[in-house]
Specification:
Elements (H helix, E strand, L loop, with lengths): L1 H4 L2 H19 L1 H5 L10 H10 L2 H12 L1 H20 L4 H4 L1 H21 L6 H39 L2
């Protein structure tokens, strides 16, 4: 799987998908009267946001969570893990872990969001913990990918400029 994720067409496709779905998710906020629940990192604010939504807004939020926000972590994982798999060399199996953790926790968070949108507000504290872990692992995976890209560019530039 790592060889597949690290292929150039897969990296390009996952990046394009990530950008398109991310922009589409950005359009959901106005339809639901504010931020999506998975962007809120503390329980009181998440509960207040949930209470402020009408039934129609909750349905729209749930539809976006089950469709767009279920695809988003897949594309993010494919891109971030693909960069790590391509550039981390012998460490590639370890380098994909932050992206994998991000994806697993994003899916778990989405599941709890759907329950909360259907009336199980009492699980919101657990969802908040998952949100924090999701954003932490996503940040780590992103910094790692950026660092690997900078390192690869520096190696490429050094090789190019050292040629006679």
């Amino acid at each position: 799987m790592l060889n597949f994720l690290s292929r150039t067409p897969v990296l390009i496709g996952s990046f394009i998908g990530m950008v398109l779905i991310g922009n589409s998710l950005g359009m959901v906020g106005p339809k639901i009267g504010g931020r999506m629940l998975d962007l809120i990192m503390n329980t009181p604010d998440a509960l207040a946001r949930l209470a402020a939504m009408s039934d129609a807004q909750k349905r729209t939020h749930m539809l976006a969570t089950l469709s767009l926000d279920s695809l988003f972590p897949l594309f993010n994982f494919a891109f971030l893990a693909g960069i790590a798999a391509r550039l981390a060399g012998a460490w590639r199996r370890w380098a994909i872990l932050p992206a994998l953790i991000y994806m697993v926790f994003d899916f778990a968070e989405n599941s709890l969001e759907v329950f909360a949108l259907n009336g199980a507000e009492n699980i919101m504290p657990v969802k908040t913990v998952l949100t924090l872990i999701k954003f932490t692992s996503f940040s780590l995976a992103s910094v790692l990918a950026l660092g690997l890209i900078v390192w690869a560019l520096a190696r490429w530039a050094r090789r190019k400029w050292q040629k006679p």
